[in-house]
Write a structure and sequence with these properties.
- With about 180 residues, the protein is mainly alpha-helical.
- It has 2 domains: about 35 residues, Glutaredoxin (3-Layer(aba) Sandwich); about 110 residues, Up-down Bundle (Glutathione S-transferase Yfyf (Class Pi), Chain A, domain 2), CATH 1.20.1050.10.
- Helix content is about 60%, strand content about 5%.
- It is built from 8 helices and 2 strands.
- The protein has a two-stranded antiparallel sheet.
């Protein structure tokens, strides 16, 4: 792992942009890509699918269980990440408090959490079994759940299924290692 100092805008360094043309994290270099040639990948969803397929872990090879895991991965990529990221920005870091933006992003984040809580009332994990969908979603929810629930309890509700899911995911040793933010 190579930490990227976002505070000093290291993500725009030409060497990093060669790996991630979008100048964003995460990005990987698989030195043993197809045919043994190095492969660079950016975007967490693409990275997770690639690694799951390469290792044969955390994503079914075919069928309905694979489709469910991918469905919830795409739900996270298109909804949870962007909405919770914007909610956090407008609540905590924006230099100007813009009520419309706060209401919009916090409200949509709360709605997504309610959807998630409903899904987790039907299955232990988003895709059924623990999968890349849970890996992608957990960091966002671990950081933002209480913030969003406190802001919009009328939408989120108690979130008991999310609480159970977070406890189960957080107990995994690999998740514990992954959630440790390295110092740069």
């Amino acid at each position: 792992m190579h930490p990227v100092d976002l505070g000093n805008q290291a993500q725009f360094d030409p060497a990093f942009v060669k790996i991630s043309p979008n100048g964003r994290i995460p990005a990987i270099v698989d030195r043993e890509g197809d045919g043994g040639a190095p492969l660079t990948l950016m975007e967490s969803g693409a990275i997770l699918v690639y690694l799951a397929e390469k290792t044969g872990k955390f994503l079914a090879a075919k069928g309905g269980q694979r489709a469910k895991a991918l469905e919830w991965l795409m739900w996270q990529m298109g909804g949870v990440g962007p909405m919770m990221g914007q909610a956090n920005h407008f609540l905590n870091t924006a230099s100007e408090k813009i009520p419309y933006a706060i209401d919009r992003y916090v409200g949509e984040s709360a709605r997504l959490l309610k959807v998630m809580d409903g899904r987790l009332g039907q299955a232990d994990y988003l895709g059924g079994d623990y999968s890349i969908a849970d890996m992608a979603t957990y960091p966002w929810v671990a950081v933002g759940f209480d913030l969003i629930r406190q802001a919009r309890p009328d939408i989120v509700g108690e979130g008991a299924n999310i609480e159970r899911w977070m406890k189960n995911v957080a107990a995994r040793p690999a998740v514990q290692r992954g959630m440790k933010i390295p110092s740069v």
